[in-house]
Amino acid sequence: MTFRRSLFSLAIGSAMVLACGPALAQKGQTVKIAWIDALTGLTAATGQNQLKGFQFVAEQFNKNNAAGVKYEIVSFDNKLSPQETVNALQAAIDQGIRYVAQGTGTGPATAIIDFLNKYNERNPGKEVLFLNYAAVDPALTNEKCSFWHFRLDADTSMKMEALTTFMKDDKDIKKVYLINQNYAHGHQVVKYAKDNLARKRPDVQIVGEDLTPLAQTRDFAPYIAKIKASGADTVVTGNWSSDLTLLIKAANDAGLTAKFYTYYASVSGTPTALGANSAGRVYQVGVMPFENPAARKLMDEYKAKFNDDFYTAQIYNAYSLMTAAIVKAKSIEPVKVAAAMEGLEVPSFGGSVQMRKTDHQLQQAVHITVWQKAGAKPYDYSVENTGYNFRTVKSYEPYVASTPTSCQMKRPAGL
Which of 90, 96, 345, 396 is the most buried (most CB within 10 A)? Predict the structure, then answer.
């Protein structure tokens, strides 16, 4: 599989597929997607950004896509609650919606998988497909893997594999502090950080660790005091939304000069908290290559419309995969689309991505970026109008971050 292609060759390939579009049986049909995530509470800013992202990219694809379909997003606020997620999913199904997208939190993602496993078995011909764009617990594509679930983000273990591959060459790292949210993802960050650092940098000391309640802590000053007292030169955190924004703010207020290796420093609110004090010492691992011309075009258009930042490549990949799968299946029926999506390779901002058939985990390049002052083009983008941005310092091909799976997938009859 070739993961790096020129924009020219991608454009030609897309045009060839598009030429087949008008003859497809599903042309002109509307594909509704139930977007279920938090729009209230401490993580509301993240949810609102993701919802706008899904709506905006739908508008872009609706102008011209190879399948000839129209995408429509119907939003539901799950308040970051698994039970509210199930209630919203049932409401969406009652409205005849056959696709669901969710990404904020492992609990809601697990609830969707468990619900759909039972619902789809009991309701042949009315199946619903789950596009998981950001819930990254490895269990979801291992012991809890499901035919009805497709993950578009790199999981926690994949990102940590890339992050520690980068960290191992930084000889200034001597003492690491782990601070994470007290739920599945946070626990996994701790586990994989310890395992990977022990394997790649056995000389590094883990000098402390904390698990904080998810989206409940408003004052991280006591935690920053512990980190300073530990003598840590590096902090590793999978925190996101308010839990990272407030952690960074407390660190800057206290004058903590340790490096931060993060998963979600680009998420709404955190860049503003980073400011000038964090330049050159806050890193992020992710799947969005910010300097890519196609990504930059989308970012500029999104910012012009919302005065907000587009930072989630997984949203683009959701539509790219869906469109290609619909073309391949010649249908918008979820069972046929799911079967077509398995093994499918499509272009993305960081090169080609491929949906692994074994466990429905997207295989993709992973990028390490650092927060620093905006410069000349193409490095001039100003995140949250701060005058700073995330610049790619290292990109890893998919095989570097790819991790094995224990998935034993139960498939529908005949597939």
Answer: 396
All residues at 6 or more sequence positions from 249 whose CB lies less than 8 Å from its CB, including other chains: 220, 273
Q: Taking the model in full, what pTM does it have?
A: 0.92
CA-wise closest residue to 132 among 360, 393, 403, 397: 360
Place of tokens 């990504």: 295
C-alpha separations of 1 from 102, 286, 352, 399 in Å = 28, 21, 9, 11
- C-beta neighbour count of 149 within 10 angstroms: 25
* 70-77 vs 99-102, strand pairing mode: unpaired
Q: Where are the domains of the chain?
A: 7-154+293-364, 157-286+367-401
The span from the CA of 323 to the CA of 305, in Å, is 24
CATH of domain 157-286+367-401: 3.40.50.2300
Interior/surface letters 123-141, b for 16+ CB within 10 angstroms, e for the rest: eeeebbbbbbbbbbbbbbb
pLDDT in tens, 253-267: 999 999 999 999 999
Q: How far apart are CA 364 and CA 338, in angstroms?
A: 19
The rounded distance, in Å, linking the Cα atoms of 303 and 95 is 32
Per-residue pLDDT of 122-168, as tens digits, reads: 999 999 999 999 999 999 999 999 999 999 999 999 999 999 999 99
- Do residues 92 and 76 make contact, with C-beta atoms less than 8 angstroms apart? yes
Nearest Cα residue to 382 out of 289, 305, 309: 309
Write the DSSP symbol of residue 234: E
Please check whether the two domains, 7-154+293-364 and 157-286+367-401, share a CATH topology: yes
The overall longest dimension of the chain from CA atoms, in Å, is 67
Compute the Cα dihedral for 313, 134, 84, 242 and give only its sign: negative
